[in-house]
Design goal:
14 helices; binds iron/sulfur cluster; pyruvate-formate lyase- activating enzyme; alpha/beta; five-stranded mixed β-barrel; 3 domains
């Protein structure tokens, strides 16, 4: 028996779905030592911070929270504190973690989280600090069957890394080159999640899912992978994120339209409505091309839910560029927009660009954009009336609710005798006080 059996661990996760999913793998690794999870850092023998450095705010928050562990470690030197993920992986990070946080016992990056359980055991034995940042994956990244939080939606990695090098983005520097998982391996994982564990949604993850397969010898494109996964028997749907407009072809729209099991929702980051800014961002598409994808997707799937990411205040963005972004929002009428102020990331080209915009101005623009999007989303509710959406039927506070592929809730009043967690078409019959209500419309399926 090792010293960890029956002891507690605590994981704090920052950042994107990729990190959330990696924490699920870290959880599995620590549980393989016989450990139990706790929300209380004071109780934990092992404390892990899985960090993000995509924006300065996330990085500062993580750093400040890690600093508070110093007193906990002082009180109980037997605790093991580990930091992993994107923050330590940066070559020119804002914080020199190893130097500034001497009480942290293990500091590793993104490519060796699969070794974390071993590092924890090594540290417990030798009390020698582990600081190991490697440039390439150390062994298999799908190293453990993840212990997932959610029992409806399961994240599944299909591709790691990114080769795009958008000028504002730190991801290619901390996550490495695009590396796809073999299709058969993904198929087996999804099949197990659906058929043995009862998952209803599978969300395929990658920094750019549309690049899937390009690095494989015996290859399959992303749309082919989707069709392949749809051959798995079961009542489930597949979502995916994130797509890059440059690589999203007609083949994907066709598969989304034709395969019932592919959810009718698309997150397509545009980042800016200005061609000038997109060029400076190194995004490799223009607004005309972007709008053509949206047009095709809507033509093929009229009720598709669309969302996007926007960066406000990129260096050189003037009033005209910003207004073009607002114009795009009014035109596309997204169901959801994730907007952020541009955040300087050390080591990325945009940090050195002329025309950096003051924080105050960035915030003004961001607030203006968010206000507009709020009005658009309220107005969008009208479009749901009399439309039918294939929904996952669930029970919320004793009432049946259909959840659309885009995550919208449609209340189904009076529908008392229902099972949960199955898909059924729901027709919207009412739009009141920002809420949708409807009836199950079995004839439409
Ligand atoms: S596509 Fe661009 S924004 Fe997305 S992860 Fe790659 S470099 Fe970053």
């Amino acid at each position: 028996m090792n010293n960890f059996v029956g002891r507690f661990y605590h994981i704090t996760t920052y950042g994107c779905q990729m990190n959330v999913h990696e924490s699920e793998k870290i959880r599995a690794a620590l549980q393989s030592l016989g450990m139990l999870e706790t929300n209380d850092v004071n109780l934990a023998k092992v404390i892990v911070f899985n960090t993000c450095c995509v924006r300065e705010g996330a990085e500062d928050r993580a750093y400040n929270n890690i600093v508070t562990l110093q007193s906990i470690k002082k009180e109980d030197p037997g605790k093991i504190i580990a930091i992993c993920g994107c923050m330590p992986q940066q070559k020119k990070g804002k914080y020199n973690l190893a130097e500034k946080l001497p009480f942290v016992d293990i500091i590793i990056g993104t490519h060796n989280i699969n070794q974390l359980a071993q590092y924890v055991k090594d540290y417990a034995k030798t009390k020698r600090r582990v600081i190991e940042i490697v440039d390439k994956p150390k062994g298999k990244m799908d190293f453990n069957t993840p212990v997932r939080d959610d029992h409806i939606n399961a994240y599944v990695n299909i591709i790691y890394g990114c080769d795009k090098y958008c000028t504002y983005c730190i991801v290619p520097y901390v996550r490495g080159r695009e590396t796809s998982r073999p299709p058969k391996e993904i198929y087996e994982e999804v099949k197990d999640l659906v058929q043995n564990q009862g998952y209803k949604y599978i969300t395929l993850l990658g920094q750019n899912v549309n690049s899937y397969g390009k690095d494989l010898v015996d290859t399959m494109s992303f749309s082919e992978l989707l069709s392949f996964l749809c051959t798995i028997e079961g009542d489930f749907k597949i979502k995916f994120m994130t797509s890059h407009p440059m690589d999203l072809g007609d083949d994907l729209i066709k598969v989304m339209k034709n395969e019932y099991k592919v959810a009718k929702t698309l997150h397509l980051p545009v980042q800016s409505g200005s061609d000038k800014v997109l060029q400076k961002m190194n995004r490799h598409y223009n607004i005309k091309h972007y709008k053509s994808i949206i047009r095709k997707a809507r033509k093929a799937m009229p009720t598709i839910s669309l969302s996007t990411d926007i960066i406000v205040g990129f260096p050189g963005e003037d009033e005209k560029d910003f207004n073009q972004t607002l114009k795009l929002l009014k035109k596309v009428k997204y169901d959801q927009v994730f907007a952020f102020s541009y955040s300087k990331r050390s080591g990325t080209p945009a940090t050195e660009f002329d025309g950096q915009i003051e924080e105050k101005e960035k915030n003004l623009r961001l607030n203006k954009l968010l206000r507009l999007q709020k009005i658009i989303q309220q107005d969008n509710l009208k479009k749901y009336f009399k439309q039918t959406y294939d929904c996952l039927i669930q029970q919320i506070n004793g009432v049946a609710v259909g959840i659309t592929d885009g995550g919208k809730e449609i209340y189904i009043p009076g529908y008392k005798y229902f099972n949960q967690n199955y898909f059924a078409p729901v027709q919207v019959e009412g739009v009141r006080n920002h809420k949708l209500s409807g009836v199950i419309n079995d004839r439409k399926r």
